[in-house]
Amino acid sequence: xxxxxxxxxxxxxxxxxxxxxxxxxxxxxxxxxxxxxxxxxxxxxxxxxxxxxxxxxxxxxxxxxxxxxxxxxxxxxxxxxxxxxxxxxxxxxxxxxxxxxxxxxxxxxxxxxxxxxxxxxxxxxxxxxxxxxxxxxxxxxxxxxxxxxxxxxxxxxxxxxxxxxxxxxxxxxxxxxxxxxxxxxxxxxxxxxxxxxxxxxxxxxxxxxxxxxxxxxxxxxxxxxxxxxxxxxxxxxxxxxxxxxxxxxxxxxxxxxxxxxxxxxxxxxxxxxxxxxxxxxxxxxxxxxxxxxxxxxxxxxxxxxxxxxxxxxxxxxxxxxxxxxxxxxxxxxxxxxxxxxxxxxxxxxxxxxxxxxxxxxxxxxxxxxxxxxxxxxxxxxxxxxxxxxxxxxxxxxxxxxxxxxxxxxxxxxxxxxxxxxxxxxxxxxxxxxxxxxxxxxxxxxxxxxxxxxxxxxxxxxxxxxxxxxxxxxxxxxxxxxxxxxxxxxxxxxxxxxxxxxxxxxxxxxxxxxxxxxxxxxxxxxxxxxxxxxxxxxxxxxxxxxxxxxxxxxxxxxxxxxxxxxxxxxxxxxxxxxxxxxxxxxxxxxxxxxxxxxxxxxxxxxxxxxxxxxxxxxxxxxxxxxxxxxxxxxxxxxxxxxxxxxxxxxxxxxxxxxxxxxxxxxxxxxxxxxxxxxxxxxxxxxxxxxxxxxxxxxxxxxxxxxxxxxxxxxxxxxxxxxxxxxxxxxxxxxxxxxxxxxxxxxxx
Length: 747
What we know:
Blueprint: E1 4-5, E2 15-18, E3 21-27, E4 34-40, E5 44-52, E6 58-67, E7 70-76, E8 87-91, E9 99-103, E10 113-121, E11 125-135, E12 144-147, E13 151-157, E14 163-168, E15 181-184, E16 187-193, E17 200-207, E18 210-214, E19 229-230, E20 254-257, H1 259-262, H2 273-277, H3 280-286, E21 290-293, E22 297-299, E23 309-315, H4 321-334, E24 338-343, H5 391-406, E25 412-415, H6 419-422, E26 423-424, E27 427-428, H7 430-446, E28 451-454, E29 476-478, H8 480-491, H9 501-508, E30 518-520, H10 535-539, H11 547-562, E31 566-570, H12 591-594, H13 596-609, E32 623-630, E33 635-641, E34 650-655, E35 661-668, E36 673-679, E37 697-698, E38 709-715, E39 719-725, E40 745-746
């Protein structure tokens, strides 16, 4: 590794008195290195000094020739003596060679300031030596800026650059002061003492005639999307939620949140992490166990959904930056709520994208080292698909995932449009497939309890097959076969046009026979925008708070919370938010009062889904039997269970029509007493509801719908009833199979 010599900025002459003999200090100026030929004709000292700056990683003295007895003393900050020095060496014979050095890794570490060399002889001596002051590669491993006790390490990847320098507040933005040294294979680094947390910086990359000032691709903090990187200490945050455990996946209920609009007022700046923290108590009371954040990586401007990341490692400055995200996670964890993050690796930008032609190289007028430089770069959002086959880019995405999981303590991810990772306009993309496998394997090896979700929306079982079986290795994926049949089931105006086979599809579809491999929902950021609206708005465009909108939209909530899968709701869904999702339109929290009954319904359903009363364990179990579908009456019933038995067996009865039933008889899977634990027609959920009274029953030993027992129940219009088996009840006699998802009987 070739060291690059730096210029001396100051020259000072000092006088001293040692052994009553005044000697001047020879202060070395200029570029260096300095070759000194000198002599001492009688017993005494000679002194030399040099100034060391932050970028200098090594200070070295090499003797080329020695005649006589020479003692060497080196001292930082003051003139050495025989009893006060940092390093010493004793040369008692004539000869060549001999050296001493100070560096960032020696036991006595190099510091900024003036360093003195004292040569003492008891007899006459002659000598020739060279003093060099070198910039060397950083001794600290890791990419980007990494603060240490006495400075900061900087490392970047710029394989086509002629030179790279670190410039910032620490060196008055001098573009030549801190040359980054080669680590090999296109990586360059330098350690700069005195570069402090909070100081701004950029990399100055020269490639031919180009001089490019770049933010740090690995930097967690930037001033804004077109600003500077900021040195950030990942280890400085004071975590107080150290006892948090990520909820098991079968006890995960997700609340999808957009930080900019979750808790904000119209006009002015967007919402931020601190404003969102103010409503975490609300979410804790609602009962959700996980928050899924829309992307919070730095994006262009201050208002965005977040799916245009310009700085994939940085946290959006308008939201509060990296410390803001850590505060949010810490506060959520202290309330028992996990935090998942939506991440975008199918494309970057396309605007305010400093990694575009990062080191000045590109081909075919494309994006350079981070991107495909052929037609594989094309995506629906710009020609910025990362080159998933390039080793550095793969490492970049892997490091990004591990940083957010380990340094920010996030509990998992939702990967945006994995379809656009595994496919390009050339067809299947093995680069993208193997990348997802590698990152998923890395996550599973380190933190297998964390939840990694794909948004692929192609009903592709291979997304959630294990990598050992050739799959992509995701834990779960968003299910289009739930939301897409459920939406018309709720929004179709006329009951006669409602098709209960949509409910069959929504309930019974799964991936690889595993119930937790799908995330189910009726609203998401995509489903309530892009030409679509919130479910209540689509049910009754003129009055989304109407009886019909409330009744039918909450039937969707019942199915979401009682169907096998990981349930998710979109922010404001629980208070009947209307319109469509916009990044400038905050949640109207006055609806929390207006639709308090709807919110209570969601809260009750979440508590039942999580078995918080100890009577509905089956809702967090794997098994389903959709045993009754009546397309004429628009009524269906299904059984959920884990191991079965009292407090476990659950039967859900749903009515998707405007017709009331005083006596609706369905099969029951077990004998004993069945209690009603939820009735969506209760007037506590809506003052204009019919409050149909549905009594519990003792199951009759008279087979129906393929089950060994039956019971009769009252059922209100557009309503659902949830039944649970009381303690001291009977045993299975119906022959149901574990994890059964057979097609139902129809009558």
